[in-house]
Design goal:
27% of the residues are buried. An 8-stranded antiparallel sheet has the order 1-6-8-7-3-4-2-5, with helices on one face. It has 11 helices and 8 strands. Helix 1 crosses helix 2 and helix 5 crosses helix 6. The termini are far apart. The chain is globular. With 293 residues, the chain is α+β, with helices and mostly antiparallel strands. 44% of the residues lie in helices and 18% in strands.
Amino acid sequence: MKTALQNYHARMQRVLDHIDRHLDDNLDLDTLSGVAALSKFHFHRQFTATFGVSLHRYVQLARMKRASYRLAYRDAQSVTEIAMEAGYDAPDAFARAFRQRFGNLPSSFRKAPDWEPWLAAFGPLNNARSKLMQTIFNTDDVTIRDVPSIPVAIMEHHGDPATIGTTIQRFIAWRKANGLSPKTNPTFNVFHSDPRTKWPTEYRMDLCVGMDRPIEAKGERIETGIIPGGRCAVLRVGGNTDNLEAAALYLYRDWLPASGEETRDFPLYCQRLVLFPEVPEHEAVAELFLPLK
């Protein structure tokens, strides 16, 4: 029975991976039932029963999520180009769908994203993915490394985690103004507080970029600092790296007590190695660093 269930889950996982890889392609029922190796009639019912959302709705949400990331964080593409990539024949059809889902027009979202309705809208997508895409970590996934000190420029996010998208948008714009490409200057997040144990107004996270030269604030509140070198427990996370809570919990709750190690006086931090939407979401990669004595 367990083997049969695992086989069934593996089929559905193949479908989710295929959708992520082929968002610009035809993702109709015939195509995806073939990926699952199931009759299209049974597949459609099983997909909805498994994920709590229809196949068509899931694909729409996945395309709209990528489109909204590109609107907020990638200004090189026009709204028309983003609309076409999201599967809409015309910008006005995309605008209507976007406004119905998020409460404002794509052009307005690009200028000033409202993240609260955005998070609510993607609840069904995140719930669907979490049913089969939860990663179970074990001790073999953690390595201990000696890492060098890294000079960084820091933009602090202080406040509700739900609004961090606005800070990320400012951070990306500031990096572009200073020519600090992720390809040449690494991206880090330093987690000063746990969103589960802090009031939203007290939450703090630093958005950091590795520096190789002096930088200019250009109207932003930018500080300089150092991510200190030393021994770290490192856990690599692939896929949806928006939420690293499960990985952080594993390091603190499971790995650390069993390891016999002790932590240094520096917070948990991560390096963003491969970023969505530059790659399909399941190909995004981050590494969590837990500083050790």
